[in-house]
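Thread: quick sanity check before group meeting

JM: Hey all, I'm pulling together slides for Thursday and realized we never actually wrote out the predicted structure for the chain we discussed last week. Dropping the sequence here so it's in one place. If anyone has concerns about the input, flag it before I start.
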Amino acid sequence: MWHKIIKICYINNINIDYIVINFVYYNVFYSSRNRMNLHQLEYIVALDLHRNHARAAAHCHVSQPTLSMMVKKLEEELGVRIFEKGQPLKPSAAGEVVISRARQILQEVKNLREFVRSEKDSIEGEFRVGVIPTLAPYLLPRFLNDFLAAHPGTSFTIMEMPTEEIVKSLKSGRLDIGILVTPLDDKEIREIPVFYEPILLYTSRQLKYYHDDRVSLKALSTEDLLLLQEGHCFRGQVMNLCSAKGQRTHKQLNYQTGSFETLKAMVDKNYGYTLIPELAVDTRSKQVKHFAAPEPVREVSLAVHYGFVKEMLIVKLRESILSAIPAHFKKNDKFIRVRWN
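JM (edit): ok, ran it. Output follows.
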């Protein structure tokens, strides 16, 4: 090795002793690749228990050379001899302290694993849930009371928030769960798709769409289209669906609203038409029109940060939502998933 051979280097006419080179090499290059790990701690505890390399290796399900090599590396890293040379095998004075601390660490790791396992299986606790405004008033009343009644140890603080705020709050820990439209395409957020809600047309009686059984997406005109205001993800979906980016919508009216109910009321008074998710309308109305297949849908998902461990809560929440929505929301094989961004 170069650091064992070179006695003196000359860099800018300054003498550098090989010992310094050896120290720098070990600490910068070697030690960074040889950090102690839990396996090494398990090996020294097993050696102390069995006082025999072969039996300790069998206990740890590794070969004897592997166990011996890893114990030696740990001793080198710590700078102490953990086990005395010779027979019978026994810890050194320093080794007794190291092994005692190793046992404590391994027990804490075991406790942590058991804690996480129990957390995954539990749904009890207080949770902060963010829901997008175009979904909250139509979805939450369908399942929330039944869910909370079935799980009295669970409580929710629910906030209506736009998608961007939900994502930021999940990352910062201000929210535990989001209910929103996906995909998000964010590597820090885990998406759990729940259902696929059809997007329908809600038309005034004066427009041609009123007399159609089903409407073709290609037949839509943006002239009479009423939209939600900027900032709502559903507006983005409609714009993507109608290829209306940068185009003027209703020819005389530019109405800024964040409410589907307002849009429906305007349409009822013959102010054109709008697109609306199925949960927000009475599908028996003649003003509601399905699109010709394949129908556009929005994918509704639960979203959590990848560090969220309450797996059973996600499972139960998803089951509760699925039990409260129409059966045809559960399939996406005949639909077009419309992006919101």
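AS: nice. Residues 93-121 form the longest helix (29 residues). Confidence is low (pLDDT under 50) at residues 1-32.
JM: adding both to the slides.
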